[in-house]
């Protein structure tokens, strides 16, 4: 089951098997064996490397019942891809946060306007 979890997280994050293996510094054949559950007992050292690249806690790779918040992180591939594109385009985190804050402010303004001038 560890292998299937790693494979799903890797896929959800848009990484190929080769990319994950290279970034984590593990052999592609070894990672493939892990994902196919042929190698079902990888060392904690390897799991730490993989978790680091995947940006998830090691526990999410080995827990038999991952918590709901960990599951929810990987449900929407479109959001993951959107964030990757923003990062690749060079948008700083602070600018992204500013945009979100502005968006929230705009929503609040629209709500207040609707409450002040309700439709009839």
Using the coordinates above, name the CATH class of the largest domain.
Answer: Mainly Alpha
The helix-and-strand class reads mainly alpha
CATH superfamily of the largest domain: lambda repressor-like DNA-binding domains
What is the N-to-C order of secondary-structure elements (H for helix, E for strand)? HHHHHHHH
SSE blueprint:
Blueprint: H1 2-12, H2 17-24, H3 28-35, H4 44-54, H5 58-62, H6 68-72, H7 77-88, H8 93-116
What features would you highlight for this structure?
mainly alpha; 120 residues; elongated
Summary?
With 120 residues, the protein is an all-alpha fold. It has two domains: 2-67, 434 Repressor (Amino-terminal Domain); 77-116. 70% of the residues lie in helices and 0% in strands.
Structure description:
The mean pLDDT is 84. The chain starts with a helix and ends with a helix. The protein folds into two domains: 2-67, Orthogonal Bundle (434 Repressor (Amino-terminal Domain)); 77-116. The longest helix has 24 residues, at 93-116. The protein is built from eight helices and no strands. It has 120 residues and is mostly helical. The protein is elongated.
